[in-house]
From TrEMBL:
The keyword ATP-binding does not apply. This is NADH-ubiquinone oxidoreductase chain 2. GO terms for molecular function: NADH dehydrogenase (ubiquinone) activity. It is an enzyme of class 7 (translocase). The gene is ND2. It holds the Pfam family Proton_antipo_M. It is a multi-pass membrane protein. It comes from Sakesphorus luctuosus. Its main location: mitochondrion. It is found in: Mitochondrion inner membrane. Residues 23-288 form the NADH:quinone oxidoreductase/Mrp antiporter transmembrane domain.
Length: 341
C-alpha cells in the first residue's frame, strides 16, 4: 500500500476514535464510528486476496447495520425525550436498541459471528487494530450509557460471551481465530462489570490491549498463522518464543502475571454486589479459555517437530526484535506487583 494512503487511513482511525470518545452528541459519536469503519476497510482489503475482500465486505455490512441501529436508537430517544446528549439515554426502547447496536459493533454473543471470520481474513497487524483500537469507541459509549442499561441482559450476554469464547476456541487451529475467540471471552468479563463499576471495565480493556498487542506483534515477527507452524517458532527467535508463552499465560489470567489483576478485581466487585454465583460461573467458564492458551504455549515452546540438522541451525540466524515488543511483553507479564500503586 502507498505510504501516503496508509498514513491517511491511520490518521482517520485516530480522528474517528477521538471524535467518538470526546463527543456529547449522538450524531458526533455516530460520525466518529463511521469514519473508523471507512478508514479500516482499505487496510483489511489491502492484500487483494479473495478472503480479505470477503472479510472487508462482512465487516462493512455488519458495522453499517450496527451504526444504523445506533442512530435509530438515539433518534428514538430524542423523539420521546428531546435529548441528544449521550448520557441522557432514558427511553427503554432506545436503551435496548443501543445495547444491541454496541454488542454488534463489539462482537458480543449472540452477535459474535462476524468477528472470527473478519479477523481470519486480515493480516495480523490489521487484526490487532480490529481487536484493540476499534473496540475502544464502542466500549466508551457503553461506559457513558451504563446507568441506563439493563443489568440482567448485560449479565446474560457477558456469561454467554465468556462461555462461547472459551468453548469455540477449543477446536481452532488458526491463531487468528483463537485470538478472536479470546477477545470475545474477554469482552464478557468487561461487560459483566459494566453496570456496577465502569472504571473497572476500562482497566480491564486497557490491560487486555496491553497483553494482546505483544502476542499479535510476536506472531507477526515469527510469521506464524497456524498451530502447526507455531511448533517451529522456537528455531527462529528462542527468547521471544519463551516470553510468548508467558504472555499467553498472562492473557489466560494465571495469578503471578498481569492478566490475573482484572479478573481478581472483577470477581471481588461481583462478590461485593452479592453476585457470588455469577462470579463463580464466569470464573469457571474462563477455564475453557485457559485450555487453548496452554495449548498455544505448549505448541510454541515444548513441542519439538522432527527436523533435519540444517533446519535445527536456524536459531543461529541474527534476527533483530523491536524494542516496542520487549516493552509490551515486560508490562504484560510483570505489572501485577505494581497494582497496589
Amino acid at each position: 500500500m502507498n505510504p501516503q494512503a496508509k498514513f491517511l487511513f491511520t490518521t482517520s482511525l485516530l480522528l474517528g476514535t477521538t471524535i467518538t470518545i470526546s463527543s456529547n452528541h449522538w450524531i458526533m459519536a455516530w460520525t466518529g464510528l463511521e469514519i473508523n469503519t471507512l478508514a479500516i476497510l482499505p487496510l483489511i482489503s489491502k492484500s487483494h486476496h479473495p478472503r480479505a475482500i470477503e472479510a472487508a465486505t462482512k465487516y462493512f455490512l455488519v458495522q453499517a447495520a450496527a451504526s444504523a441501529l445506533l442512530l435509530f436508537s438515539s433518534m428514538t430517544n430524542a423523539w420521546y425525550t428531546g435529548q441528544w446528549d449521550i448520557t441522557q439515554l432514558t427511553h427503554p426502547t432506545s436503551c435496548l436498541l443501543l445495547t444491541t447496536a454496541i454488542s454488534i459493533k463489539l462482537g458480543l454473543v449472540p452477535f459474535h459471528f462476524w468477528f472470527p471470520e473478519v479477523l481470519q481474513g486480515t493480516s495480523l497487524t490489521t487484526g490487532l487494530l480490529l481487536a484493540t483500537a476499534l473496540k475502544f469507541p464502542p466500549t466508551t459509549l457503553f461506559i457513558l450509557t451504563s446507568p441506563s442499561l439493563n443489568p440482567t441482559l448485560l449479565s446474560l450476554m457477558a456469561i454467554a460471551s465468556t462461555a462461547l469464547g472459551g468453548w469455540a476456541g477449543l477446536n481452532q487451529t488458526q491463531t487468528r481465530k483463537i485470538l478472536a475467540f479470546s477477545s470475545i471471552s474477554h469482552l464478557g468479563w468487561m461487560t459483566i462489570i459494566l453496570i456496577y463499576n465502569p472504571k473497572l471495565t476500562l482497566i480491564t480493556f486497557y490491560l487486555y490491549c496491553l497483553m494482546t498487542i505483544p502476542i499479535f506483534l510476536t506472531l507477526n515477527t515469527i510469521k506464524t498463522l497456524k498451530l502447526t507452524t507455531m511448533s517451529t517458532a522456537w528455531t527462529k527467535i528462542p527468547p521471544m518464543t519463551a516470553t510468548l508463552m508467558l504472555t499467553l499465560l498472562s492473557l489466560a489470567g494465571l495469578p503471578p502475571l498481569t492478566g490475573f489483576l482484572p479478573k481478581w478485581l472483577i470477581i471481588q466487585e461481583l462478590t461485593k454486589q452479592e453476585m457470588t454465583s455469577t462470579a463463580t460461573i464466569i470464573a469457571l467458564l474462563s477455564l475453557l479459555g485457559l485450555f487453548f492458551y496452554l495449548r498455544l504455549a505448549y505448541c510454541a515452546t515444548i513441542t519439538l517437530p522432527p527436523n533435519s540438522i540444517n533446519f535445527m541451525k536456524q536459531w543461529q540466524t541474527n534476527k533483530s526484535t523491536s524494542m516496542l515488543i520487549t516493552i509490551f511483553i515486560t508490562l504484560s507479564i510483570m505489572l501485577l506487583p505494581l497494582s497496589p500503586m
